[in-house]
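User: Fold this one for me? It's DUF402 domain-containing protein.
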Amino acid sequence: MRHGEAGGTAGRWAPGTPILWRYRENGGARIHIARPVTVVRDEPDLLAVWLAPGTECVKPVLADGTPVHQEPLATRYTRPRAVQRDRWFGTGVLKLARPGEPWSVWLFWDQGWLFKNWYVNLEEPLARWAGGVDSEDHFLDISVHPDRSWHWRDEDEFAQARRDGLVDSALAGRVREAGRAAVEVIGSWGPPFSDGWENWRPDPSWAVPSLPQDWDRIPAHVSS
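Assistant: Here's what I get for DUF402 domain-containing protein.
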């Protein structure tokens, strides 16, 4: 079975369906992040997926194989890159996204299902296709703690991406606007923060989805 092709009715994926959650490279059209995930819920107002521990994924690296985060910030986005297969380390991640929203919200736990934090990943609104969803990361993020406090993350990377021409003024404005909107949701403690997802647990019968050979295939049809 190909990823995402066991969907439910009306173009929706049934719980337990494996799909791909992918990101395009910044300033390019190639897929450089691909993560097989399992659908938790797929409804008109929410897509929830589970990234299981140990899942084989695709991630960007420098052309010589060096991990991206080890490269100094000044040259991190200008050095030639490649991709490589790797395993998702640590505990799993629950990802939540609402159609048309320029961010997704990720939930992290420590060992023993001790809830750690929410993570707001600012990005292009997800585009759906038969095998999953695609987006482009916008560098800037927000970490939200169980006591409802929050702080910006990766502002240095966002600034460097602007200097390197990967984020122009128009996009920077949209990203900042999205960030402010997300902060308003956090301040009012709206969904999904108020929905109790930190108490969610995956179905123990779910297998860890595999990474398909054609993980970088071009979607035949894309919709928001």
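One thing worth pointing out: The radius of gyration is 17 Å.
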